[in-house]
Write a structure and sequence with these properties.
Elements lengths: L2 H9 L6 H9 L4 H12 L4 H20 L3 E4 L7 H4 L7 E6 L9 E6 L5 H15 L4 E4 L5 H11 L4 E4 L13 H10 E5 L11 H11 L3 E5 L7 H10 L3 E5 L9 H8 L3 E2 L3 H7 L32 H8 L3 H13 L3 E4 L3 E4 L5
């Protein structure tokens, strides 16, 4: 199999194997070797399973080619480093739209109720619009309610937005959001870890929530009840070392109990886009930022030998910064032309004098 086929094969293995797959890929194992080892170890004497996966790979590649769907493997330089940093990143992403949307810089997730109040819809749309107008990518799940309001707010500001599906990217759910998905393709991307043609399934939505939070520096929760699926996204964000914020709401309806629980547990209160940007440290004194002309004194840059690709774990260990604080520093270095992305969620420093 080609590397692409090997990565597709890995993506078709049970989601519960995700941590083991990621550990082996980070250790430098080839995707085909990882697949062969895991299948021999966990599905011994079951050749039908391997044959079934081979058939699904061929079908996925055919559907992608016919539907202009782009596969982005874990080894691809376009694979988002923030997502590569989580413990169980998908081996492969399928994308409709612009792959550049995955590398547009700072991203914030906005999630919440599928049956929100008019207040919740207004807040979601306004926050998304304000953030998108400041070059922040808005990530959500294309669901009814808060998700769709967030996407539409970003689109209204001509900003970038990413929809993460719990189905194949060619199977839009809910179906009434097909037109919205097409608009998102024009100003961002629709992505999924599931192969093209995969129908929506209740089991897929909790697992896709880790991708929504994993793509982002922060997750903002709006009108979440005690059993809201958006609380799963918030828990994923906390597990990934990302910030969690919540919009306060009425105590009379019960629609906000989940969000208020997050606030009691220490989540930042959000009343405006400025609250989110401040929490992310984007209103810090410019005097504290390093000067590109003396970039070699920067502690993160000092952890990167010239020409040697390093993953986030290595840079974190050397710099003493966790991934939530490290990613924006690396983004700044990248924007200043001192660091470039390498495959597999790694970064490499290069000498600008060359």
């Amino acid at each position: 199999m080609t590397d692409l086929s090997d990565f597709i094969a890995l993506s078709l293995l049970p989601i519960s194997w995700g941590v083991d797959i990621a550990e082996r890929l980070r250790a430098g194992r080839r995707p085909g070797d990882v697949f062969d080892h895991l299948v021999r170890e966990r599905w011994p004497n079951q050749p039908d399973r391997r044959a079934g996966i081979a058939a699904r790979i061929a079908r996925a590649i055919d559907l992608a080619a016919r539907s202009r769907i782009t596969p982005i493997s874990w080894a691809d330089t376009r694979y988002p480093p923030a997502l590569a940093a989580i413990v169980d990143p998908p081996p492969l992403l399928w994308l409709r739209g612009a792959a550049s949307a995955l590398a547009d810089g700072l991203a914030v997730a906005i999630v919440g109720s599928r049956a929100p109040t008019p207040y919740g819809l207004e807040v979601a749309g306004q926050l998304a619009a304000d953030l998108a107008s400041r070059a922040v990518t808005i990530v959500s799940g294309l669901a009814r309610g808060i998700d769709s309001a967030a996407h539409r707010g970003a689109l209204a500001s001509r900003g970038t937005t990413i929809a993460v599906l719990g189905s194949g990217v060619d199977v839009v759910y809910p179906p009434e959001h097909t037109a919205l998905a097409c608009e998102i393709e024009e100003q961002g991307a629709v992505i999924s870890e599931l192969v093209p043609g995969t129908p929506p399934n209740p089991a897929f939505f909790p697992q896709r929530n880790r991708l929504i939070s994993g793509l982002c520096r922060a997750t903002v929760v709006i009108e979440a009840g005690k059993t809201s699926g958006s609380l799963i996204t918030a828990r994923c964000a906390l597990d990934q070392g990302r910030d969690v914020l919540a919009v306060p709401g009425s105590v009379l309806t019960g629609r906000n109990r989940g969000g208020h629980g997050l606030l009691r547990d220490g989540a930042k209160i959000v009343e405006s886009a400025d609250d989110i940007l401040e929490e992310l440290g984007l209103f810090a004194n410019h005097a504290a930022r390093f000067d590109a002309s003396s970039g070699h004194a920067d502690p993160v840059l000092a952890c990167l030998p010239v020409g040697e690709p390093c993953d986030l774990d290595t840079i974190s260990e050397r710099s003493g910064l966790n991934s939530a604080r490290l990613l924006p520093r690396l983004l700044e270095l990248e924007l200043r032309g001192l660091v470039r992305r390498a495959g597999g969620g790694r970064f490499v420093r290069f000498d600008r004098s060359c």
